Amino acid sequence: MRFIHPRVIDYIFGEGSCGLVATMRNYRYRVGHSIRVRVGNKVFCGNVLAVVDNTRENAEKYVEYSGFNSVDEWLGEAIRLHHGRRPKYIVLVKLWDCGTNKR
């Protein structure tokens, strides 16, 4: 998994994220699955905490962990990044530095 959108990268490195990030994806990650996550030029470890269908109701629950100001803004960018298609799932991930980044 990787994050390339500047707003999401700023959110992840900011103080408000607490290591949690929600993302819209087409791949159905498994809850409890450990993953590597690229954020800009850094690599983090992650654990999948939740995977839900990408509905408006679910997006409203998770938008605070997305880095975007509204569901419409988040969904619009996700559709753009997925070449005009709405991603199927919302995935909540807990990130932490697993010692792979140079200081």
Can you describe this structure?
With 103 residues, the chain is α+β, with helices and mostly antiparallel strands. 24% of the residues are buried. The radius of gyration is 13 Å and the shape is globular. It has a five-stranded mixed beta sheet. A hairpin with a 2-residue loop joins strand 3 and strand 4. It has three helices and five strands; from the N terminus they run βαβββααβ. The protein has one domain. Helices cover 25% and strands 33% of the residues. The model has no long low-confidence stretch (mean pLDDT 93). The longest helix is centred in the last third of the chain and has 11 residues, at 71-81.
Name its key features.
25% helix; 3 helices; 103 residues; alpha+beta
Q: Give the biggest sheet.
A: 5 strands, mixed
Beta-strand level of the residues, as a percent range? 25-35%
Cα-atom radius of gyration: 13 Å
Unreliable segments (pLDDT under 50, ≥5 consecutive)?
none
Terminal CA distance reads 22 Å
Element pattern in H and E: EHEEEHHE
Total domain units: 1
- Mean pLDDT across all amino acids: 93
Number of helices: 3
How would you sum up the global shape?
A: globular
Count of beta strands: 5
Structural class estimated from helices and strands: alpha+beta
Side by side, the strands of the main sheet go 1-3-4-5-2
